[in-house]
Design a protein that fits this description.
By secondary structure, this protein is mainly beta. The protein is built from two helices and 31 strands. The protein has a 16-stranded parallel sheet that branches. The chain has a 15-stranded mixed sheet that branches.
């Protein structure tokens, strides 16, 4: 009897499990088979289709999620995703002068295989405004034609866990990035590449009164921007004191090629005219980045850090950074492959910066002329401070070829802050002005030298009050 009951219990258990599996399969099928709505069925066609597209989006949201198809090209204004789980899918789809808004509170929204074309020529217009969470963007193209300034997309501070793959952007500035846990993978971003239009940062990473954390930017190409990624100036608090809790933390920029850009990465908390104070940038990794600007169309500084108003930049690592470029200008502002500067004003700090850089002037530092477009950069490395702040644990591994003033310049007030772990410098300091002393390595602060080799046919190898001359 016990065995019969035991067998029966096992049969009931197996039958129950099978029933549960079937029920789960039915629920999964229901979830996959989401309703599909074509904007044509809601009246989209010739003329302004904003209302028809919005009705289709609203219907998908009211059904608890669904797919809104955009077959063909439509004139459109601003539309808002009004429910969770809504997918907007292009079928050779294009919105002309459109903007899609995913507001705070929306989740699991998706935009795929869609182009948004801005024909207005207005720097104030943009294509995408995202404050939602757990949203996915695949094969999205944002174009301004005619070209104009202004961001193409805003990823707002409340946004989180948004995933962008196959993003294409052309004809304007880049993307404002805030929020948490975002990934950009496999992108191609092209600025206006015309004087006075666009040319700002491809990814402008900010922390507007709240932290921005865990941003991944990888496997892409940017053309004609100031930098692949910028940090600030809007980090911290606007005109108020803080305890540095408002920060940009944990950013990785890897495997990106910059074509004719001014910089690879530009750190600027508290450095510009805006009154943002006490910002913190903590934990940035730059790896396998390459910048090419052989004719000196835009290049100014490879990795540039400028801080003021109490800002802190710390825990920045750069590996396998390569630059082959000439400077865009000469004498307007300092140019270098690595530029670290603390400005006057409230105390700012750099801590634990570890950079490995390979720089080459394609014309070996030749003066500007018909055979050598662009200009030689001033220094391979330039480090100085004018404010009350300080630096510590700055470690550099640099190879560089071709410069105007010298190889490495370190200003006063930075005793024991800098270690040149490796500095292999060739043809540096080729065209120094007669009023400026210098050397392959010039330092007015105590500096630790590791594996150092300097070839300067014009200047002495070493100079400065701290090093002395040999």
């Amino acid at each position: 009897m016990e065995r019969i009951l035991s067998d029966l219990s096992r049969r009931e258990l197996l039958m129950g499990a099978a029933a549960m599996t079937a029920a789960c399969s039915q629920r999964t099928a229901a979830q996959v088979a989401r309703p599909v709505f074509s904007v044509r069925d809601f009246g989209a066609g010739a003329g302004d289709s904003t209302r028809a597209i919005q009705r289709a989006i609203d219907e998908a949201g009211a059904r608890g999620g669904g797919i809104v198809e955009i077959p063909g090209s439509y004139e459109c204004g601003i539309v808002t995703v009004s429910g969770d789980g809504v997918t907007i899918r292009g079928v050779n789809g294009r919105l002309v002068n459109g903007r899609i808004v995913i507001p705070q509170g929306r989740q699991r929204c998706r935009i795929e295989n869609l182009a948004i074309l801005d024909r207005q020529g207005d720097s104030r217009t943009y294509a995408l405004d995202v404050a939602g969470r757990n949203c996915t963007f695949k094969n999205l193209s944002l174009v301004k034609d005619p070209v104009a300034g202004g961001y193409q997309m805003y990823l707002r501070q409340p946004s989180a866990a948004c995933d962008f793959s196959g993003l294409r952007l052309k004809g304007s500035n880049g993307i404002m990035v805030a929020g948490n846990d975002h990934i950009f993978d496999g992108f191609e971003l092209e600025s206006a590449m015309r004087e006075g239009f666009g040319g700002d940062d491809a990814f402008a990473i900010k922390a507007l009164g709240e932290p921005t954390t865990n941003i991944t930017i990888r496997n892409g190409v940017v053309r004609g921007f100031y930098a692949i990624a910028s940090f600030g100036s809007e980090i911290g608090t606007s005109g108020k004191t803080s305890d540095h809790r408002v920060a940009v933390r944990n950013v990785a920029v890897t495997d990106v090629m910059a074509d004719r850009c001014s910089s690879l990465a530009f750190f600027k908390p508290g450095a510009l005219i805006y009154d943002w104070r006490n910002g913190l940038i903590d934990g940035v990794r730059l790896e396998r980045l390459k910048l090419t600007d052989e004719r000196g169309e835009r290049f100014a500084a490879g990795i540039r850090m400028i801080a003021g108003r109490g800002a802190i930049i710390r825990n920045v690592v750069g590996r396998q950074i390569e630059i082959r470029a000439r400077a865009m200008s000469q004498g307007k502002f300092p140019t270098s492959a690595i530029d670290l500067s603390i400005l006057e004003g409230a105390e700012a700090r750099f801590e634990d910066i570890d950079l490995q850089m390979n720089f080459a002037d394609p014309f070996d530092g030749a003066e500007h002329g018909p055979a050598a477009p662009g200009f030689p950069i001033d220094h391979i490395v330039r480090i100085e401070k004018s404010g009350r702040g300080g630096m510590r644990r700055i470690n550099l591994d640099v190879t560089g070829r071709g410069s105007r003033f010298g190889g490495v310049y370190i200003g006063a007030g930075l005793d024991d802050a800098v270690t040149l772990r490796r500095a292999q410098l060739q043809r540096v300091g080729l065209h120094p002005p007669s009023t400026l002393g210098g050397g392959g390595i010039w330092s007015d602060s105590r500096v630790t030298l590791g594996d150092v080799s300097v070839d300067s046919p014009v200047l002495p190898k070493f100079g400065g009050r701290a090093l002395g001359r040999n």
